[in-house]
Amino acid sequence: MRDSKDPDGPVLLVTRAALRSAVDAARASR
């Protein structure tokens, strides 16, 4: 668990979550 030394880790997780939420919203809107 190298979160403090790897700032890209949490950022990637957040971006992935955002992308997933966006995809889910797009599917729900249809």
TrEMBL record:
Domain DUF397: 1-27
The species this protein was found in: Actinomadura physcomitrii
Protein name listed in UniProt: DUF397 domain-containing protein
InterPro entries in alphabetical order: DUF397 (IPR007278)
One of the Pfam families matching this protein, by short name: DUF397
